[in-house]
Structures are given as C-alpha cells and as structure tokens.
Amino acid sequence: MKTTDHPYQLIVTLYCILPTVYRPLPTAQHPLFLTPSHVRLTFGPMERNIADLKRQFSQVFGEGGKIHVVRAPGRVNLIGEHTDYNDGFVLPVAVEPEITVVFRGRDDGKYRFASTAFPNDLDEFVIDGNIPKRPNHWSNYPRGIAHEFQQAGLTLVGIDALVINTLPVGSGLSSSAALLISSALAMLALTGLKVELPRLAILAHRAENEFIGLPCGIMDQTIIATGRAGFAMLLDCRDLSRSYVAIDPKELRIVIANTMILHSLPGGEYAERRKDCETAVAYFKTIDASVKSLRDVTIPMLEESTGKLPDRPFRRARHVVSEIARTQEAATLLGKRRYEELGEIMLQGHRSLQQDYEVSSPELDCLVEESMKVKGVYGARLTGAGLGGCIVALAQPRAVETLTLHLQKTYNEKFKKVPEIYVTSASAGASMIE
Ligand code: ADP
Ligand code: MG
Hints:
By secondary structure, this protein is α+β, with helices and mostly antiparallel strands. The chain is 39% helix and 19% strand.
C-alpha cells in the first residue's frame, strides 16, 4: 500500500510535521539528557510497520498462511474520575499507544497466544466449551473474552496470536481493555462473525468483571471499542449513551506523563471508596426516595447534608457530585474551544481527587504542579484510579517540547526517576488493519 493511500495519512503527516511523540530518555545520567534533538518518535501509526509485526509473528509461530493484524488503542480520561460506578459521566479519549494482535487461523481448535511483553510465556488451550482461568496470568484476558463469546453462543475457531504493544502495561492507560478488545477482534475476524462495537465493549467489560474478577466500570472498553479519531467521548455511564466532542490537533495536544509507579488503588482502598459512596447514597435516599446513585444528588442536596453525613462519605460524595458536573462542563468547554476554562476545571478535578477522594500521591501532584508552570499548558490532572499511574495535561502543540523536558528534569530531580511522556492526538477505536 502506498503511503498516500494509507487511512492514517493525515495523522502520519501530522506526525511528520510535529514530531511530538517522545521516547523518554533512559536515565537522567544519560549524556544527552535534555538535548531536544535526542527526543524522538516512539510509536503511533507512523511506527506501525506491518511487515515487521508479521516477521515477529513468524518468529514465534512459523511462516506461512494468511497473517492478519488488528489493533486497539489505549485510553486516557480527560476528566470524570470515580464517576463511572456512580452512574456519572466520563470524558475519555483513545490514544495512539496501542496493542496490535498479529494472528493466523488454525483448523485444530487450538488457541495459542503469546505476547512480546511476557516473552517465553506462550499460553495454549483448546476450545472445548470450558475455558479455565489461569491464576495470575496475562492470558486470562484472551481467555476471558473467548469465554464470553462462548457464553454468547459464538462458535470460535483455533488461532495463533502474537500480542505486540506500544501501550505500557499496568500504567493506567488501560492495556487490559485494549488487550481484551484486540483479542476479541482477532477471534471474530477468523469466525467471520460480526459483533457491534458497543456490544463488544459490554462483553469485554463482563470478561474483566467476571472472568478476570476486577470490578471496573465500562469506560475503558467503550472508548477503546468505539472511540473516533479526532474526538473525545462524553459517555453517560448510566445509560451508556455517547456523544463525541472534537479535539483539534492543531490547537490541542494531549500529553500523558507516567509516574512510573504502577497504578494500583489496592483492592481495599477501592472497595472502601465504593462503600463510602453507598453510605452517602443510603443517606440521600432518606431525604429523597428517588435517589438511586450519586448521579441523582444535586449540589444543593449535598450542601444540605453538611454535618449530617459522616465526614469521609461526605467528602467522597462531594468529589463525585462535583466531578459529574465538572465533566459535563468540560465537554461543553472543549466543544467551544474555551481551553483556559477547561484547564481550570481539570485542576479543580485534581484538587478534588487529592483532598476529597484522597487518591493522589506526591508523584502525581508533582507532575500536575510542574505541568502548570509551563507556558501554553491549559490544565493537568491525575487520570485513572490514582495512587500511581499517569497524569494528563492539555497543552498548545508548541508547548509540548518544553513541557516534556521540564517534567523529565523536575520529576527526576525529586523522585530519581524519569517519567515516560506520551504525546498524542485523539485516536480511532479498535480496528482491523489487514
Ligand atoms: P492497565 O489496564 O492500566 O494497563 P491493568 O492492571 O488493568 O493495567 O492491566 C494490566 C494487565 O493486563 C497486565 O498485568 C497483563 O495481565 C495484561 N496485559 C496488558 N497488556 C498486555 C500485553 N501487551 N501482553 C500481555 N498482557 C497484557
Ligand atoms: Mg486496566
């Protein structure tokens, strides 16, 4: 395929003009640390070399047959944190770091999955109606989606698949949902069956909740399956309705900085926050019987509850109720290109997560504060569940290089680690490449 025919031509062109996806330098001791010319492109459509992906596949599974490729993007949430399980709104974007699955059909009903992220750890099982879970194994993601397909009555066929990622694993950019969705597309491609993308998101969500056993919300699977290039998605987690808000890459760049601390709101911390939300809902139900979740609580109702609800559930509820309002407001401001106000709302969201939901950390706070010192950065906040993982900043394209270098320098000075920085535009949802 000629470059000019490539569906990603526009993005490729942008990448050429604006070389803004940066590879972090390995260490601050690197002799070229802080040398802008050393900052280089790492991933994105421009770097997706299909021939190389297929070569890697053949090294693991051998030559021959028709080899296919699917991809699924990662995601970053611009705002709307801990609102999903409270029936609220979220505003995620699909990002360019991605998972590709390179695969070929088999006619013996065997499933073999390998991943470059976990070398020499090939998973094999037979589709015989009962797909067991492997304790603490990455392959539970492809297994989980295969299980869901079987439950839904789909007849699967055998597959050899190699998972290759530019999306960091376990950094809060949803490599888990990207793996589920890309594996699903690969399996479907071989059966020739079609599942509508929103339905695929629901199946993947169920796999993550039930097969993997992680009580996450539906945001990740939805944006990864149904994201649109050049758009953020305002998702209503109550009825799953979606609307898309344009992000003009000429005006706005999404910069993600990784604390390099695996995001993990430990099970107990997550459960405690969910319980606090339930305590608050139980209280508000006594005031208004129609309240089903914090989505139904208004700011005046919340103010009325001061001193009546215990402090912690009150603060948790204050975060959720105000965050739901902020998320809707942020979508409106983004649509109107009112970036300064949007940035201010992101900062308010960060403070609320820090003080009321208590899921920030010194590392996340540092990256947010340092981002805001750079001219041309509109706003920044922690993204994902918190206590590790990443921050997201919205910046003018021309501010990106300064921002990247500033964050690498200041974060390393304080925490002796160089944060990985991913610079991205809004990418498309998962798709078949060939
Ligand atoms: P996040 O979704 O934020 O990246 P999670 O902890 O939810 O973090 O998911 C990470 C898990 O998903 C990994 O531990 C692994 O089991 C699986 N996973 C993600 N990416 C890959 C990959 N490229 N290859 C194999 N497994 C992966
Ligand atoms: Mg995940």
